[in-house]
Amino acid sequence: MKQDRILPGEQGLAGLTRKWRTDHETGPNFTEWREMAAKSADMVDLPTDLDPRLAELLRASGYGRLYRHQSLTWQAAAHGHNVVLCTGTASGKSLAFNLPVFQALVSSPSAKALYVYPTKALTQDQHASLLAFAATLGTNEVRPGIYDGDTPTSSRSLVRQKANLLLTNPEMLHTGMLPHHANWSAFFGQLRYIVIDEMHTYRGVFGSNFANVLRRLLRVANFYGATPQFLMTSATIANPAELGEKLCGQPVKLVQEDGSARGQKIFAIYNPPIVNPALGLRKSAMAESIRLAKDALRNGIQTILFARSRRTVEILLKQLRDEVAMDQRKSPHELPFDPQSIQGYRSGYLPAERRAIEKGLREGHIKLVVATSALELGIDIGDLRLAMMLGFPGSIASLLQQAGRAGRGAESSMAILVATAQPVDQYLANHSEYLTQRTPENALLDPDHLVIFLNHLRCALFELPFISGEKFGGVEVGEFLEILEQNREVHTKNLRTFWMAEGYPAAKVSLRTASPNNVVLMSEEGGPPRTIGQVDLESAYWMVHPNAVYLHGGQQYHVQNLDLESGKATLVPVSLDYYTEPTREDEIELVEIAATNSAPGGEISRGEIIVHSKVTGYKKKNWSSSEILDMVPLQMPETELNTIGYWFVISPTSLASLAEAGLWTNASNDYGPKWPGTRDAVRARDEFKCQVCGLPEHGKQHDVHHKSPFREIIRRGMAELRSGGMGSQDPVPQELLDVANRLDNLITLCPNCHHKAEQNVRMRSGLAGLAYVFHQLAPLFLMCDMDDIGVYFHPEAQFCEGQPAIAIYDMVPAGIGFANKLYELHQKLVGECTRLITECTCEDGCPACVGPAGENGVGGKNETLAILGVMQGASSDV
Description:
By secondary structure, the chain is of the alpha/beta class. It is built from 28 helices and 36 strands.
C-alpha cells in the first residue's frame, strides 16, 4: 500500500503551481507555461474474434472496451501485418501487443512469442505483469519466462522447456540464444510473434547492431520453418514506420491514432534568472532544480528529477540529501521524512538496487528519485505527478518520454524543463516553439554499416553456414565471404561456407558501444573487495582514471588503481570537498575525403578521419563552487577512433578579411625578438619561484604570465594605430610590444598556477566560440546526445594543410551517419547558431552562447559572429 502523502496529490499539485506562478522569485522565470486540457478516451468494442476467455478476463479486469489504437493494432496483426504502434506514454501499448500474442498462445498450444526489451529492468517489470495475467487466466496456456543475464544457470534449462512467452534483451538474444540455437530449436520453430518494445531506443550504434541481430534471428527462425510477425512500439518520433522497416527488414503497418485518455497536463520551461547581465551569468540550474524539487516535497508530490549524466545524478542526490537533512535539523516538521527516501537511479547500479528503488517508488516510500534516462522507459514506477528535467535530454522524443513519466490516465500532472546555461537550453528557453510545434526528430541507424554488418555476418556464419547466393538482410555477401576466407575465418565446400575460426564471434561484438569490454569497479572497505558497478572501457579512461573521484549512490570513491588489462578498477570510499574532471588532447588525421563543396567563407568536406585522443590530466574542482583547486598531469595510453567527420575550412580570403577587421585572434602570439631576454629577466627577478604558491623551478622552467592579456593590449593598440593611418598589413611595432611586455605586467608562475590565471583572464577566440556553439546545437538536428559527436578546432589544422578549421565527427568507429547529416545541414546549422548568439543579451560571450571568458578576460562573441557572418556570405566588417 502507498503511504499517505503530506497533502492529497491533486491539492498538492494545484497549490504548488499557484505558489510558483505568484512567487516573485519563481514566476517571472517561466518562459513557457502551457496548459493542455484533459482528453477523453476514444473507445471501441472488443473484437468479435477475440477468444471468449480473453474477452471475459478483460471485462473482469475493467477493460470492457479498447482504445482505438489497441483495436487497430489487433486488426492489423490479424491480417498478418508487421505493426508499428506509435502513441504517447501510458497509452496502453502493452495491452495492444499482448492481445494478439495471447490469442495465438491460447489458440495454439505449440505457438511461441519472443518479447525483446532494451533493458533488463523493463524486462523484469513487464514479466511481473504477464505473470499476474497468466495467474488470472487460470490455465497453463500462457507461460511467461525471463531469459537474460540475471537468470540463474540452474533455471535456464527449465525456462527453455516450459516458457512459451519468452522475455529477453538484445544482448542475451545476441550472445546467449542465437549462437546456441540448436538448444532452442523447438522454440524458434514455432515462433509466431516477435515483440520489440520501446523501438525508438534502437538508433545509432545500438540500433544498427540490433537490426543485424534481428536479421540473424529471422534467418534462424526460417531455418526451423517459422516466419514470425513483428509487433513494435515506439515513442513519438518523426519516422516510426521507416525505423520499424529498417529494424525488421520488412514492410510494416503504422498505427498512431492515440485513443487513450489524458488528464490535464502542464508543460513549463524554467530559465534561472540572470545574476550578472554583463557576463550573461544565471543562477545555477542545479541549485534551482534542487529548490523546486524541495518545494514539491513540501507539497507532498512524488517527483522524478532527470539529469543528463551519471555524475550529475550523484551530485544532485548528495546535495538534496544534505539540504533536506539540514532543513530537518532547523525545522523538523517541514519535511517529515527520511532523507533516504530520496534515491538515485542510473546505469552502473546493481540490479538488486534498481529493483528496490522501483518498488519504493510504486509503494510511495521513495518521495523523490534523481535519474538518468535509465528511468525514461516504461518501467512501472507508480503515479508520479511531477517530472523535472535538468537540461534538455537531447531529443524531443526523449523529452516527451521523460515528461510522460508524470501523470497516468485521468490524473493531472506537470513537467518542467529547467534550462541550464548551455546554448541548446537557452535556445529552447527562448524558442519554445521548437519543442511544442516542431515534429520530433528522425531516429537514424545504418544496418549496412560496414564494420557492424561484417561483425554480424561472422556471427551468422557461426550460427548457420551460408549457401551460395544467399543474402544477409537483403545484401549480397559473396565479396565479404571471400575476404573472410582469405583471413582463414571461413571455408567453402560444396557451395556452402562454414565458420572455422576458434571461439564464437558474438562474444567479441558489443551492441551498445564500440567496445565489448567493461571495467569492473571494486570497492575496498576493510573486508573482501565488493563490486559496486561497472563502466565500459571507453568511459573508464576518463571516469575511473587513477586518483579520480567516482560517485555512486551519493557516495564518493577515490580510484586507487585502474588495470585496463584485467578490466578492474580499485576504489575506496572517501569524503572529499572536491570532485575531478579529466582533461584531454585530440588530434585529427585525414584518411580520405568523400565529398567537398564550396560554401560561403570557405569550403565544407566530409570523409574518413582518425581521431587521436589522450587523457593528459585532471582538474580538482570545488564541490560547491566548481572552482579549480589543482591541475594534475596523468600518463594514460592514447586511443584512436577511426570514424567519419564533417569539417569547414575558412578560406584565405575570409581569413584576411577577418584579420584586417581585427576579428581574428586565433594566431599564435609573437612576443617579439626581445622576449627570450625579457622572460629570463622576469624569472630571475622572481628568484625562479612561482609568485603564487612559492614552488621553485625544478628541472623545467616556470612560465611567465602577462597580467593584462598580451593579445588584448596588441589588439587595442593596433586598432588605434590603424585608425591613425597605419596599414592593415603592417607588423606590430616594437614600441607596442614593449608596452605589452613591460616587467610590471609580467609574473613567474608554475604551470598549475598559470593555468588558473589563464582561466581568469583568458581571451576566447572566435574559432573556439564557433566550436562551442556548433557542438551544443548540432544534436538538435540529429536524434543524438552531445556525447555521440565530437568537436575539434584548430587555427592551423594539420589535416587541412595548416588552415583554420572546425570539425564535427561521429564518436563511433566508421561513423553512424551524424557527420554526413550535418554536412547536408551545414547552412541551417550556421543560421541557427547565428540566431542564438545574436539573441543572447550578454555583452561579450557567456555559457549560453559562445562560452565564457575568464572573470577579467575577453569573450569571443564578436569574433564568433564575424566568422558566422562570412560563413553566410557577409562581410566581416559589418
